[in-house]
Every structure is written in C-alpha cells, then in structure tokens.
Sequence to fold (365 residues):
Amino acid sequence: MPIKKHNFGAGPCILPDTVLTRAADAVKGWGTTGLSLLEISHRSTEFEFVVKETEKLVRELLAVPDTYSVLFLQGGASLQFAMVPMNFLGKMKKAAYLDAGYFGQKAIKEAGISGDVVVVASSKEKAYSYIPKDYAIPQDAAYFHITSNNTIEGTELFHFPKSPVPLICDMSSDIFSRVIDITAFDLVYAGAQKNMGPAGMTLVIAKNSFLDSVKNKVNAILDYRVYRENGSMYNTPPVFAIYTAMLNLQWLKSKGGVKVIQTENLAKAQLLYDEIDSNPLFYGLAERQDRSLMNVTFRMHAPAAEAGFIEFAAKQGMVGIRGYRTVGGFRASLYNALPYDSVKALVDCMKAYARILHVDLIPAY
Ligand SMILES: *Cc1c(COP(=O)(O)O)cnc(C)c1O
Fold:
C-alpha cells in the first residue's frame, strides 16, 4: 500500500519511499543470498559488508576523521544517558551538564547515579523555550554534556560551546540534518529513529583517545571499547536497522550530502516559521534565535481551538502534529526525508483554518 500521509511525527521518523521499498524487498529476499535480510547471519560476508559500508557513509557524510571510532549500538539514546557516565564518570568525579530540555534532564538523572553532576545552566524555569548561553564549565569536570536539538521543546544549538573538558553531545534529532564539525566533540551519540533510520540502532562517534582514557570497570556490553574492538559485533547487532540506515545514508549521499539537505531543511523551516509568525491564530514556542529547524513547536492563541485544528489537518492527510504531552499545542518535525510539499500542505492548512475560524467568528446579524 503506498504511503500517502504527510508525516510530521517526531520519531520514528519519515523515511524516503525508495528506502522503504528497498528495505521491504530485502526482507522478502536479500540480493543473491537466497535468504531474507532478517534471516542472514550477522557474521556473513554480505552483512559484514553492510556494517563497513554504513560506517563508510557515516564517515563520509559527517567528515569523521580516522582518530574517531564509528560504532553501532542498541538501547537507543536513552542507554547512552547511562553508558556515558558509566564509562567516563567515576564515583569520585563530577560531570557537567547543560539542562536545556526534557532529554537533557533525563541524561542528568542517569549521570547522578554514577557520580556527581554539576548543572552549569538551565532554562527549565522558562519551559525550556531557549538555550542557556552564559555559563562556566568547571575545569575539573570529567566531561561536559549537551543536547544539540531539543526534540520536544523545539530549540536547537547553533553555536557549540568551547569546552575546557571533553565535550559530549546527544545529536539524536539533528544528526545528518546540518553540517557540524565532529572534531569539536569527544563523543557524539544519536538514536537512529529521528533522522537516520528505523528504531533499534544507536550511532556513537567517539574520539579514540577519549575512549582510551576510560578507567572505570564496565560490563562488556556497556563498554564502548568492546564495541570498538569487535567492529560493533560484540553481540548480534540490529541487522535490519543497520541495513535500513545504510540505505537512508546512501539516499542522503545521492542527494548531495548534508550540505544540500541543510539548505532544504532551512527552506522548510523558514516556510513554516513564516506562517506561524504571520498567521494571527498561531504563535511559536521557542525563542527566535534558538528555533529548531527539525522540530517546530507552536500553539494557538485560543487553546480551545487546537483540537479542532489537529482534526482539520488530519482530514488533509497530516499526521504527527500534536505537541508532546507536557508541552501541548503542536509540533511539526521536519526531518530530512519530509518533502517541502508536505510543509507547504501544512501551511495551506493553517491558512485555511484561519479563514474558517474567521468565518465562524463573524457575528450573525
Ligand atoms: C528521542 C530522543 C532521545 C531518546 O531516544 P531513544 O532512542 O528513544 O532512547 C534522546 N535524546 C534526544 C535528543 C531525542 O530526540
């Protein structure tokens, strides 16, 4: 059945039609193997090629130098909330965190189990509507942790801090959406299902010297170095998720790479923010200079009319625009594979709804 909806869902993300078709084909029968992709041994030469190819694409698209390892794990970004402190934070040490959103807060909570946490700044008191910018990072922290894009609140970091200690970044919801300098970070992680592929795989890019610095004793399955030593195959990797991510990265490469998609993403976000700012029904939730290009959060001045808009938009084929339950209102996620035309369709819906409400508001004489 062909896909006909405009998918603004925050994750799992929209994937290109060609990627879905090829992934589905491989499930039915993969290449010349005579097997389904789901049945193939992860130790087969065919699948070993897939892992190598996916790593190659990650390195190429993000310009990852040889001094960094590219690893494929499971457990989502949430496991990284725990794994980062398990590896890099000891009981006698402290780690610094920026508290700029729901997921950053979860990371802080997990780190607190492994050691001391210093929150350098927080925008919690303003419902995480902006990214704190003036703060000092303690020189004796084991690392400094940030989130590049706050998926739920709709804010994004456009200037990464200069850190005197190793910099770790949760890039789950904006990796591959814009050009970044990987060498500014010591470790980057991302759950795949926001911009990279299906759920089940987590990408970790880590500076080798940072991994070598680990002194903590960690269980093998939670030890980054074990994944590095085993080429991400310490245990059975998420075969289907890695394969589909590979297809998606091939698609991104064929489009011209991250720089090209960044321009498209900018145009999509601009179109939607312009409508939010000019349509009298709506207003944006994030402070302008921190507005996310991936997750656009907005509300109506008349909250009672919001449910009606979701219903109205659903009739025009829009799905996934309801805001996160703690935020309310709307969130439109504009991940890489979302076509410009889908944003155009949403904007048309917003214009049409304004006309309808206006008509309804005209008093009957
Ligand atoms: C979705 C998300 C997470 C959680 O990811 P899981 O893979 O579900 O664990 C963490 N951080 C950010 C920024 C996210 O968008």
